[in-house]
Amino acid sequence: MATEPKIICNNIWKVFGPNPERTMREMDRSLTRAEVQEQTGHVVGVKDVSFSVDPGETFVVMGLSGSGKSTLVRCLSRLIDPTEGQVLIDGKDITTVSHSELKDLRRHKLAMVFQHFGLFPHRKVIDNVAYGLEVRGEGRKQRYEKAMEIIDLVGLEGWADHYPRELSGGMQQRVGLARAMAVEPEILLFDEPFSALDPLIRREMQDELLDLQARLKKTMVFITHDFLEAIKMGDHIMIMRDGAISQMGTPEEIVANPADKYVADFTEDVPRYKVLSAGKVMRPVSNHVVKSGEPSVLMSAKIDGLIDIVADTDEPVAVVDGQGSVQGVIDRSIVMKSMKGSF
Questions:
Q1: Which of 53, 95, 133, 304 has the CB geometry, 3.0–4.6 Å to 138, for a possible disulfide?
Q2: What is the pLDDT of residue 2?
Q3: Taking the chain (343 residues) in consecutive chunks of 10 residues, what is each chunk's mean pLDDT?
Q4: Across-strand partners of 16?
Q5: How high is the pLDDT of residue 227?
Q6: Domain containing 237: what range?
Q7: For position 117, what pLDDT does the model report?
Q8: Which helix (H) or strand (E) holds 247?
Q9: Residue 32 sits in the same domain as residue 52
Q10: Handedness of CA 19, 25, 27, 30 (dihedral sign)
């Protein structure tokens, strides 16, 4: 049975200026951001954006600075209110709920991790992590027990009684992540959480979050300007430009078929063989028979994991679906072409 999306955004607009509602009523909605600003003096931050996120999915929103991605994620949590459109969480439009209902949503269902950590410098790590539980009214013993559990989970054992200034940037971001996770939210929103970190620490944090996600299966919306980070973290990616959607799809779909030059520029330096699957590059066949002892690979297998397999045989290797039925074959030439970016 198909599951309902956890998050649905319908035609979200965010217009900044003195009279955004009137501007929305009167403006030609086909105009570009620059044309709207020139004609009305208002800035379109988000332009008619619609998408959905399934339970347990990591949905990445990316684009250059000013593309509207951070404005969009703030609309999801109603840190800012959309000018027009719906944000449905579990089927309920949160753009229409009261302040008390919104407060309850943020305390129990939704949490956010920011780029610059947002830690309280005068509070120890354990008190930072336990803050959401404290706001929720939980007792000291209960919230400390939960905070210690999450501190261990994110790899900060032994640091509970230290202050943020005593931690590295990567450790501070772990505290920010732990604070968000301590309230056991169903949805986590990340606004460029690793962009302030050094490259090595950044990769370590990406791997850590992927490991946590594999175990906890939270619904995540992840904002980034880094395409390599997007394809590493995301089940689906939405690329934005000037407040609007340029392309949306799986990492493989976007790398294999960029919609325009703007998207193609992001994909240009991506090692395609790390993203493309056997099913995407295989040569379709209908009559290949897998012999006993002959290797076969799944359609979903990434090309970089198949190099050794095709290197050890002169024969085509069968590509099978989840039921074991042969859908095509790959060989050395196909793998070499994918490594050169010929697909």
A1: 133
A2: 58
A3: 86 96 93 93 96 97 93 93 96 93 89 80 93 89 92 90 91 89 91 85 89 92 94 96 96 92 91 85 77 80 86 84 85 81 57
A4: 43
A5: 93
A6: 1-109+186-200+213-270
A7: 67
A8: strand 244-249
A9: yes
A10: positive
Q: Are residues 193 and 326 in the same domain?
A: no
Q: Are 81 and 71 in contact (CB under 8 A)?
A: no
Q: Residue 225: enclosing H or E segment and its boundaries?
A: none
Q: Please check whether residue 147 lies inside any domain of the structure.
A: no
Sequence-separated (6 or more) residues with CB below 8 Å from residue 238: 51, 59, 60, 61, 62, 245, 247, 248
For residue 45, give the H/E element and its range: strand 43-53
Q: Pick the closest to residue 163 from 194, 206, 119, 133 (CA basis).
A: 119
- Nearest Cα neighbor of 282 from 264, 269, 267, 301 is 301
Contact 297, 306 (CB under 8 A): yes
Q: Which of 11, 4, 2 is nearest to 243 (CA)?
A: 11
Structure confidence at residue 147 (pLDDT): 93
What are the CA-CA distances from residue 318 to residues 277, 288, 308, 324 (Å)?
A: 13, 7, 15, 10
The secondary structure element, H or E, covering residue 52 is strand 43-53
User: HSE of 335 in the Cβ direction (CA atoms, 13 Å)?
Assistant: 22
